[in-house]
Amino acid sequence: MRVNGKGLIDRSAPVGFTFDGVRYDGFEGDTVASALLANDIRLVGRSFKYHRPRGVLTAGSEEPNALITVGRGAEAEPNTRATVQEVFEGLEAVSQNRWPSLGLDLMAVNDLAAPFLGAGFYYKTFMWPRAFWEKLYEPVIRRAAGLGALSGLPNTDRYERAWAHCDLLVIGAGPAGLMAALVAARAGLDVILADEDARMGGRLLAETHAVAGKPGHGWVAEVLAELSSMENVRLMPRTTVTGAYDGGTYGALERVGHHRPRDDARRPRECFWRIVTRRAILCAGAIERPVAFRNNDRPGVMTAGAVRAYLNRWGVAPGRTVTVFGNNDDAHRTARDLVAAGVHVAAVIDSRPGVTLEGFRVISGAEVCNASGAKALESITIRHQGREEKIATDCLAMSGGWNPSVHLTCHMNGRPTWAGDILSFVPSPGAIPGMDVAGACNGAFSTAACLREGAEAALRAAEALGKRAAMPDLPLAEDDPYRIAPLWHVPGKGRAWLDFQNDVTVKDVKQAAVENFRSVEHMKRYTTQGMATDQGKNSNVAALAVLADATGRGIPETGTTTFRPPYVPVSIAAMGAGAEGPGFAPQRFTTSHKAATERGAPMIEAGLWYRPSYFPAPGETTWRQACDREVAMVRNAVGICDVSTLGKIDIQGPDAAQLLDFVYTNTFSTLAQGRVRYGLMLREDGFVMDDGTTARLGEQHYVMTTTTAAAGLVMKHLEFVHQCLRPDWDLSMISVTEAWAQFAVAGPKSRELLNGLLDQPIDDATWPFMSCGKIAVQGIEGRLFRISFSGEHAYEIAVPARYGDSLFRLLVARAEGMGGGLYGMEALNVLRIEKGHITHAEIHGRTTAFDIGMGRMVSQKKDCIGKTMSERPGLMDPERERLVGLRPVGAVRQILAGAHLFNEGDAAVRVNDQGYVTSTCFSPTLGDTLALAFLKRGPERYGEKVRMVDHARGVETLCEVVNPVFFDPEGGRVRG
Amino acid sequence: MRITCPICGARDSREFSYRGAALALQRPAPDAGDDAWADYVHLRENPAGDTRELWYHEGGCGAWIVVTRNTVTHEVRSAELAAEVAR
């Protein structure tokens, strides 16, 4: 019910929303939880395991009970905390984990079976038969237990990721955080103030005491006004700092769109921030812990601080007759504020003896031992001086004390320290490098202490960053002592809840101890305490106090479990924002991409590049038809292929030749200017890294080409060799892959084609095989290389990338006029297999120069990367699997890549393995299947027959071992 | 994690790629023998504490950097240009 004259909500702005289909009214500034309580809705959810009726417990992000699904269909967001979700016009919320309805939940039968469903129930019960695990037990358990359900539909919402940088990150905008931000900002630091609430101010919005002589929220408003006016301050409300990481990096989740209608498709739902800061101050406050007693999970039993927050911030009395139960002075404030607001307080029950207060009935030295009422609290039973008494009440405000929110200080393996005076853990100093801690999260609970610690921490931050700052006059505020006596659970029959969200009771923790799960980490996993979406924010300290008691140890010896990021649940959609579909990886397109796409070429991915697979001609229905035609075109006329994706590294300097000699197995210092040479590159362990051609354009100028796949790897390798191994060599290198558009012009008519295009015609004398140099096309300077991957008389012509599209179209038009045309990756692959040329299918990281028949390319006259290790006996063993060609000789003509090879008479089992197939194609040139393979003693076995067996696809083919160069073994065609 | 590239300044570790121990800088002579080469190519320390390792500023200036890092605290103690360390 609303309380007149209370709250910071805007009563002039009513907001309508629905819960389980029923329309309710709230006000601007309400959360779903406060609006439901204002409408006297007490039952908001069902518990995880026992389907117990549950109501709102807290007023913050730690809420374990009031989880709702917001929105419908693909837009539904399950497990939204009603205490965090702001109301807006048209919001649709539904309850979770109940069937058929929240009021009548048939799964509540679980609660009757509770004696059998305690800790370890699953482990003990569902052990056999094993076959039932996946088919029966798991589906049934998953159906019965759980929280919200996903829609199963693709997420249509937008999410973002962003980076922010600052001098000082202040986490939490309560009294400590506001004071810290103010002092630091005045000292000139770049400050980010992040707070998970929609409205900054922390507990000052929920309390009635004055700061600097005015209401707390009034002081907050003044500070925020000053901070907002400063250019060096960024205020980030609705932003939860979720994790502390190395190097002053913090993760934070900003709720951008959850609090308003989806009226702008561009607005993201959430933004996941990575905030990099030089210093941080944690001012995360504290979380009140419940007291465990029988049926303490009844709707209407709430934390005392939450009751106060609903009254003071939202103008809501969560009950008409409230009782307060606690073990500390802070709980009394709830009673005082309620009475002052005109709400009836039936009694204050304080577990400590000798407590006297004025203005309401105080029962000192007493405990609440039971709560009654089916779907809402009706009465409590107290135990006082050996007698039990029933008190009618519809809301119990309980307080077991406050736990500083130390979570972030533990994200880098810091362990909190037990503070006996407040009966809780406080952060250990220096737990996160560069992070200071101030206020309630540091165990300083009075407002005055929060303000002072916040200011002091800001001064330390300013000093550390070399800024001068003065201690300000601190505003006058309450400095009441916080007195507390231990009270973790009230002994007695029945179940007393510790972890509301995962349905873990005192009995479960004791059971764990009895079964020797005495370590807090074991207890956690055995009982699942602290493993729900709230990560035990309400229950951890009490649970380990119960465990400490059950195992006869102190709480400090028992220790805590490890707090890990994220502090609150973070949607995967936010963390992976932008990385779906085409955003998953960068896309690289060649300059001919548009022209190729216009011709209907299907694209295949080569690393990040998109390359045309083939170019379908009218009438062709399969890729094979196009591929066969394209191969024949290259062999008989001329073909054009974009080869720009091959890595191109420009290397210049007096020591460029030396570097090439060192990274290649063969020699490049002896290469004449205007010539090109094939080179083989090894890793230092002696295996082949990459191959390609390198052209010498000038005395000190080379251009290296790499394979498309290894372009980045080779660049990194060359930089490593230069910077780390030969730093004194004078040379520079740069990747020019994207600077040049380069096209293969391959086939017997290639020169004829070029001579109609180049400004100066070429002939065999000036441009022999493996020559290179400058050319010009219509005045545009470019480069021409007479190299061949297809085995034909061929060239590669390169022009600056901005002329790529234009040159490509010119080349294609000319080729088509000569009976040639475009060829794609499929044809390129067939052409190279026919010639026995290798790709990374062969140099796959486990093959040596010796294996691929290039052992003699490892120069004996010089050192090179990988040379020493490549000479190990095992890598030169003739028994090794070495490159061969295969052709089918039997009725079956199919050879499959990945299939293994066996001797004719041997069984096709691993011990008889002779090798494997790496590449295969149908050769239209030779009219048969060809394959490249690695075979033990391969080159010594030409003419022998081997069995190819593909166990996976059930194919067996008898093959003849042949020279891997199937076509034109003399190489006459390349010389044209 | 953040690494201060001596050329570009402090950057997130996502800009860098990792290679391994800075031992890679100490390439043996070709005739150093099997043991020296096996150690160089294959054997690495696994210290709990300071370690020196090579990172490549792949998403930046292309510098190879020797990073001294504590494997226990994750603290990055220093970052030097490999070219200068190797000289």
By CATH, the architecture of chain B is named 2-Layer Sandwich
Helix content of chain B: 10-25%
- CATH C-level class of chain B is Alpha Beta
* Structural domain count of chain B: 1
Spatial gap, N to C terminus of chain B: 28 Å
Q: What is the overall pLDDT average of chain B?
A: 96
List keywords for this structure.
heterodimer; A: alpha+beta; six-stranded mixed sheet; B: 87 residues; alpha+beta; two-stranded antiparallel ribbon; globular
Overview of the structural elements:
The complex is a heterodimer of chains A (976) and B (87). Chain A has 976 residues and is of the alpha+beta class. Helices cover 21% and strands 28% of the residues of chain A. In chain A, strands 8, 9, 12, 13, 14, 15 and 28 form a 7-stranded mixed beta sheet that branches. Chain A has a 6-stranded mixed beta sheet with strand order 41-42-43-40-34-44. Chain A has a 6-stranded antiparallel β-barrel with strand order 45-48-47-46-49-50. In chain A, helix 5 (175-186) packs parallel to helix 6 and helix 10 (506-514) crosses helix 11. Chain A is elongated. In chain B, the strands form 2 sheets. A 4-stranded antiparallel beta sheet of chain B has the order 3-4-5-6. Chain B has a two-stranded antiparallel ribbon with strand order 1-2. Chain B has a single domain, classed as Folate-binding superfamily (Folate-binding fold, 2-Layer Sandwich), CATH 3.30.2270.10. Chain B contains 2 helices and 6 strands; from the N terminus they run βββαβββα. Chain B has 87 residues and is an alpha+beta fold.
